[in-house]
Specification:
Chain lengths: ~140, ~140
């Protein structure tokens, strides 16, 4: 392991993390809900009466974040190296498995660990592990 | 408009801005974080750290309460058991995450930039969530 100090952005990442924490905190303190993105989005697919608008508005807020950002200046770098076939495969896997595992980086990784949920701690260790292994295989075994 | 809907939108917006500030909305940076054996960018540890620090305060604050500060019922997951769905789903999610560098939240933020690759990923992810619902439907039918 070598640390890539030139790409390391401790203050931006820490303050971005704090903002994410503020959002998660607001949502549980005010709305009484977990800010888990896969669950909020997935719940829109089998809509229940009275359970649609808050989900749609939450998603709209996220999607409009870059537009709000543009009011202050240019967007930060966003580099997507994966090609279209890989994006489709990865998207399908992420969609199916986050619903199957009841959460993703936000619901398990941020909210779940914040409330010390054993299920979320195990889930986070599991997806971090396969995330590391997948990147290792793609970059260092196949050399992409 | 009901204040809960306003807070859902604002929470989504703050969450999205946090993802942009932190660098998590940039798949290239996420993959550099997951590449622990290569040139490792540890920034995303700080995203998690910052988010969990703030989140943990909120979840400590509501501990023992049944309702949110606005009187909404607290909807917290109550399960404690570790089942195979949680573990297999989370392991699967890590693979999809490691292939493209997108998890659900950042993908929605990237969608908001209009990047064609982000649109394709989100469409595939939502399709994956729909496939999950179809599998669940047939499974429940088979049981009953």
């Amino acid at each position: 392991m070598t640390i890539d100090w030139t790409s390391f952005t401790p203050w931006a990442s820490l303050s971005g993390g704090v903002l994410i924490g503020v959002a998660a905190a607001m949502f549980i303190l005010l709305n009484g809900r977990i800010a888990g993105i896969s669950g909020i989005l997935g719940g829109l697919l089998l809509p229940k009466k009275g359970d649609v608008l808050w989900r749609a508005l939450f998603v709209a807020g996220m999607v409009l974040a870059p537009t709000a950002w543009l009011l202050t200046g240019p967007l930060p770098d966003m580099q997507i190296d994966a090609g279209y076939p890989l994006l489709i495969i990865a998207g399908l896997i992420v969609g199916i498995s986050t619903r199957y595992g009841s959460g993703c980086t936000s619901g398990h990784g941020v909210c779940g660990i914040s409330r010390l949920s054993p299920r979320s701690i195990v889930a986070t260790l599991a997806f971090m592990f396969t995330g590391f292994v997948t990147v290792y295989i793609v970059r260092h075994v196949f050399g992409f | 408009m009901n204040k809960h809907f306003v807070s859902a939108f604002v929470t989504g917006l703050i969450f999205g801005l946090g993802l942009l500030v932190s660098g998590m909305a940039n798949p290239d940076k996420v993959l550099s974080f997951l590449d622990i054996t290569g040139d490792w960018d540890p920034s995303l540890m700080l995203v998690m750290g910052g988010a969990i620090a703030v989140g943990a305060m909120a979840f400590t604050l509501i501990k023992g309460r049944t309702h949110s500060l606005w009187g909404e019922p607290l909807r917290l997951p109550t399960r404690q058991d570790l089942d195979s769905r949680l573990i297999m789903g989370s392991l699967g999610f890590g693979i999809g995450w490691g292939l493209a560098g997108f998890c659900p939240g950042p993908a929605l933020v990237a969608l908001g930039t209009g990047a064609p690759k982000a649109i394709v990923f989100v469409v595939a992810m939502v399709a994956g969530m729909a496939i999950y619902e179809l599998i669940e439907k047939s499974r429940i039918k088979a049981v009953s």
